[in-house]
Write a structure and sequence with these properties.
The complex is a heterodimer of chains A (285) and B (243). Chain A is mainly beta and 285 residues long. In chain A, 9% of the residues lie in helices and 34% in strands. Chain A has 3 helices and 20 strands. In chain A, a hairpin with a 5-residue loop joins β16 (234-237) and β17 (243-246). The longest helix of chain A is centred in the first third of the chain and has 10 residues, at 37-46. The termini of chain A are far apart. In chain B, a hairpin with a 2-residue loop joins β9 and β10. Chain B folds into 2 domains: 6-80, Gyrase A, domain 2 (2-Layer Sandwich), CATH 3.30.1360; 89-241, Cyclophilin. The radius of gyration of chain B is 20 Å and the shape is elongated. Chain B is of the alpha+beta class. Classes of the chains: A mainly beta (285), B alpha+beta (243). At the A-B interface, β15 and β19 of A face β2, β3 and β4 of B.
């Protein structure tokens, strides 16, 4: 039976995400997809969904949502104090939902982004082979008041779920970002290489799905490069000495020197960091 | 050993192949030839190959297990392949309205470059521009071939909003904003054509290696074309190029 979630309050920034788009980089289309893939996979695994079923990515201040019909949900990633009808619920567990239930969030406890999965995933618009929201590709960019999100209500109480999926939350508190040298790393002076790998950096307020800027500047003597490919996890060094870590919604090409490239798992770690939090880079996998 | 191409891992899921850092049509031909080779070499589902001016990026679906083996295989492929010219290239003729309503910076360019508006339009519509790649925004074409007389620096402060279709110049590049966005280029007109349609396959009809030529249209023609586009009746004026 087709059912829907009504958005009573949108919260800070939420969007539908899956594994994102592949095969469209050559047309200038970003990958998109969940900022924290590990949490996306965990939330889906708990419900025995496909690993890439579409979920709601919730940033810091969660929305208030009303379910029109029975289903089961699971929330993973950040702990944003989720509640059903005002009673606390836990992350990484199967939660039964009845028609009319209200899901809301309170004070962010740990991490930056939570992932809400429903049984069989959200049935929202698919564009260029993915349900990930991105301005200009999907009709919606972020959750708005009054919007509805479609899902398939599972009346079948016997549907199997994974009652106990072990979720290792240690990455939510990890400050270590594993990196590989980027294409322009070797052009940096020894001093700059050392600074990059030994200094601590903090997350600037300019951080979103496209990029995370770091607050501490470095002295940059590298010239811009001829526009070349960039990826989620590419660390750019701007002429002004700012370090910018590109995230899932980043452009496909860029002209700043690419000094580092994050490991896949480190992208998940960085996706969970709030403004002001400290990280450091460490070489190797 | 030759310095180029430089083949190295870019993180855990991509390999970057870099050639000499120049903007050159012969290099583009070479890149597109290798891109085709790579797509044949790999199962297309497992990798996606994109090009820029002087690089190929090979994106893998999964983490690369054996980077060394992968790089060696690629080195052999690049060493063996004998380059053949591209076929199936097209010239796309694109309408641009250079009237005042759209040509926000025509006066400025005219003063800075000591050119009349007519001269600017002639200089902009004469060249056969080469599409090097699509990047920055969905459907944004990186075009080469701007006349040196029109090369002008970007605005000191970018505009917060540039209209969809705006045709601009920044340094030695010219291009069309595929959607409204902030931007620092000097704006000379507007092209009503859509370069990107998420409901089409492929979503962008123009490919790297194709050519673009602009032609000047009046405001009335601009409106007529816009009307055709909204009714889905507009067809690119295009012709085959090369062999």
């Amino acid at each position: 039976m087709e059912a829907e979630i009504e958005v009573l309050h949108p919260g800070l920034f939420s969007s539908i995400q899956d594994f994102g788009r592949r095969g469209f980089q050559k047309y200038g289309v970003p990958f998109s997809g969940a900022m924290d893939r590990q949490a996306l996979k965990t939330a889906n695994l708990i419900l025995r969904n496909k690993a890439d079923a579409a979920v709601l990515e919730i940033t810091q201040m969660g929305p208030k949502l009303k379910f029109s019909a029975t289903t089961k949900i699971a929330i993973s990633g950040a702990n944003l104090s989720p509640r059903i009808n005002n009673s606390e619920i836990r992350n990484n567990e199967v939660i039964k939902i009845n028609a009319g239930d209200l899901l809301s969030f309170g004070k962010p406890q740990l991490g930056m982004r939570a992932y809400l999965a429903v049984v069989d995933g959200f049935r929202t618009e698919k564009a260029l082979e993915s349900r990930s929201w991105y301005e200009g590709i999907t009709a919606n960019e972020k959750l708005e008041k009054g919007m509805t999100l479609k899902y398939w209500s599972s009346e079948n109480e016997k549907r199997e779920t994974n009652a106990s999926v072990k979720f290792d939350a240690s990455y939510l508190t990890s400050k270590e970002i594993r990196v590989y040298p980027g294409p322009e790393f070797e052009l940096l002076s020894q001093t700059l290489k050392t600074q990059l790998l030994q200094n601590k950096f903090s997350i600037d307020k300019n951080n979103n799905r496209m990029a995370v800027q770091l607050s501490e500047k470095l002295e940059n003597l590298l010239k811009p490069i001829i526009t070349g490919p960039v990826l989620p996890g590419t660390v750019q060094l701007t002429p002004g000495g700012n370090l910018i870590v590109l995230m899932r919604d980043c452009q496909t090409t860029g002209g700043y020197p690419r000094v580092l490239q994050l490991s896949e798992h480190s992208l998940n770690i960085l996706a969970q960091k709030k403004t002001g939090e400290e990280v450091h880079f460490k070489s190797g996998s | 050993m030759a310095e180029f191409p430089k083949i190295s891992a870019m993180g855990e899921r991509a390999i970057l192949v870099q050639f000499e850092p120049v903007i050159d049509e012969n290099l583009l031909e070479k890149l597109l030839f290798y891109k085709n080779k790579l797509e044949e070499f790999y199962d297309e589902v497992k990798v996606e190959v994109t090009n820029t001016y002087n690089s190929l990026l090979i994106n893998y679906l999964f983490t690369i297990e054996d980077v060394y083996g992968e790089v060696s295989a690629l080195k052999r492929l690049f060493a063996e392949a004998k380059i053949t010219k591209l076929s199936n290239r097209q010239i796309f003729h694109l309408p641009v309205c250079y009237e005042e309503e759209f040509g926000w910076d025509l006066d400025y360019i005219s003063k800075e470059k000591n050119l009349s508006k007519k001269e600017i339009i002639d200089l902009h519509t004469s060249p056969l521009y080469t599409v090097y790649f699509i990047g920055f925004l969905p459907g944004f074409l990186y075009l080469g071939g701007l006349d040196k007389k029109l090369q002008i620096s970007r605005k000191n402060e970018p505009r917060l909003k540039i209209e969809k279709g705006a045709v601009g110049i920044g340094e030695n590049q010219t291009g069309i904003y595929p959607k409204s966005s902030p931007g620092g280029w000097q704006i000379l007109g507007n092209c009503p054509v859509n370069f990107f349609d998420k409901n089409s396959n492929p979503p962008c009809e123009i490919s790297p290696g194709d050519k673009v030529k602009f032609y000047s249209v009046s405001k009335d023609e601009f409106l007529e074309i816009s009307e055709e586009i909204s009714k889905g009746k507009f067809q690119f004026k295009k012709e085959n190029y090369g062999s």
